[in-house]
Amino acid sequence: MYLKTSRETKRLGTVTRSPLYFQFSETMTGVTTIRALGAEERLLSQQSNKVDANHRACFLLWAAKRWLGLRTDIIGVVITLAAGVAVVVGDIGAGAGLAITYALKLSESLSWTVRMHAEMEMSMNSGNISSKLLVIVNIATTQAGHVVERVLEYTKIEQEPAAVVEENMPAVNWPQKAKVKVRDLVIKYSTEAPAILTNLNITI
User: Which stretches are transmembrane (predicted)?
Assistant: First the structure.
């Protein structure tokens, strides 16, 4: 009963998780368009609904695991009780503690075995594997697109001039006199803006 229930709830969790990751990756790609259209609230509401649907499936799986834990604990108590009764009724002697210890270990091993068997069946679910691969491919494609876009932006940036231009360096013995003369100076706020001062000559 637990195996069938846990397998179906795990599949339900996988089915509800894939649209959640897919919308998240798509939102990362089109965040500029979403902001331009003012669709943040609508997409946030959709994402919240998908999160709630996935959490409901996860809660059902958690409840199934707790149900299994309760049943295995009850079986373990019965086994331990039977071992204790056998120790009291029978004349086991020095082996009493060993019998009770093995009874406790048996209940723990039973719970672990059932859970591992269920986890193996759930992990081999093809829908679970394919959805994870789909999410990984979507995220990798999105990140690769961002990297290529950023590299293309860098190739369009104008190269900065060198920090030191040898042709513009003053002479070694400069200045010989305390005098500065500026000729035909042109001042602009930016390279595209018109000149605010032209042909300015200053002698200091």
Answer: 74-104
